[in-house]
Each structure stands twice: as structure tokens, then as C-alpha cells.
């Protein structure tokens, strides 16, 4: 081909597709887009990808169960703390509060459990002869610290599992992505010619595993951060109450002396 011929061909206008070919191409594209079914994508994925996706879906169910349960636990803990502080600072007699806390028909927790443990130990040590007020107060403080630790541990229960699910799910999904690409590349090695139609299913299942990993991780990480903050706030509230109650017991012991 001469240089003049090449220039003539390059300058020639590009011929558009026939009018009847445009709707056909659009229809084919729409059909191809409509075939993206996540269930079918999962069923036709390779076995390693299927196992990894099922593992992540199980982790998602576990994390959502923990999220709903812990949300109820924290809501109840806040309500109980508000209710007990209202009774405690209303001027009611401490002995009457202690009798209500030791009622066998009730299970106390949170601030009321800390109060019950401190007042019980304080009353027990007061009955012993030869113990000064400082020893009585230290005993009550030790009892409150032990109960405080148990209450915080109860609030933190299962948060570690939630954090593990949130931190590992993206990496597990990445493992599924690697397996999906490996299977796709291995399948292409036996083909005479590679095309986008041959590569697309494997790439789709690989990206599907990554998407599932993020779907599992994002709610778990968000919930863990939120619950960790609520644990910290409640622990500060419990500790502040224990300090204030210790001051009340100290003043009471000095008055009785």
C-alpha cells in the first residue's frame, strides 16, 4: 500500500452501524446485564469460593446476632443506671436501698450491684469489733472494685468476637478473590484463544467474594467501635458512682464515731 492510499483511507469518514444494528446491540447489552444473578453467581462459583462465601455469611449472621443482643444489653444498662441513680440521690435511706437490692425476686446489675456489694461488705465489717473506719471503708471499696470489674466484663462479653469478625472478613474475602482468579487463569490455559466472555465469570465470582467480605466487615467494625465507646462511658459512670458512694460511707463512719 502506497503512502497516498494510506492517507486517503485514514481521511475517509467512519461508517456508522446500520440503524437496525443499534437496537440489537443495546438489547444484547441489556440482556447481558440482566443475567447478573447473585444466587446463580454463587452456585456457579468454584468450590473454594463457595466455601469462603458461606463462611463469611455465617460470620455475618453471628455478628448481627451479637449486635442486636448487645444493643439490648446497653439500653437496659443505661435505663437501670438512670433509675437507680434517681432513687439513690432522692434521699432514701441506704438500708432501705440495700434491702431492695437483696430482694430474692430481683437480679441486680450495674450500679445497683456495685452499691449492694459495697454496702454489704461495709455492714459486715461494722459488726466486727476492733476494726476502725478506715478498714471498713477499704473493705467496701474492694468489694465495689470486684463487682465493677465483673460488670464491665459482662458488658464487654462477645465484643472480642465482633472485632475479630470485622477485622478478618476482608482478608477472608480476599482469599476468595485469589482463588477465583486462580481458577479463571487455570481455565484460560486450556483455551486456544482468550476472550472477555471466558474471563468475565471468574472475575465476577472473585469480586463477589471481595464484596461479601466488605459486607460482613463494615457493620461489625462499626458496631464494635460504637459498643466499645458505650462500655467506656458506662465504666466511667460506674467508677464515678463507686467513688461518690465511698465518700458517703466515709462521712457516715466519721459521724458514727
Automatic annotation (TrEMBL):
Keyword Nucleotidyltransferase part of the UniProt annotation: no
Where does it sit, as one GO cellular component term?
plasma membrane
Against Pfam families, the record matches this protein to: MotA_ExbB
Location relative to the cell: Cell inner membrane; Cell membrane
InterPro entries on file? ExbB/TolQ_transport (IPR050790), MotA_ExbB_proton_chnl (IPR002898), Tol-Pal_TolQ (IPR014163)
- Kindly state which keywords UniProt assigns to this record, in alphabetical order: Cell cycle, Cell division, Cell inner membrane, Cell membrane, Membrane, Transmembrane, Transmembrane helix
Q: Which ranges does the record mark as transmembrane?
A: 48-68, 161-186, 206-224
Q: Tell me the subunit arrangement.
A: The Tol-Pal system is composed of five core proteins: the inner membrane proteins TolA, TolQ and TolR, the periplasmic protein TolB and the outer membrane protein Pal. They form a network linking the inner and outer membranes and the peptidoglycan layer.
Entry protein name: Tol-Pal system protein TolQ
**Lineage of the source organism?**
Bacteria, Pseudomonadati, Pseudomonadota, Gammaproteobacteria, Lysobacterales
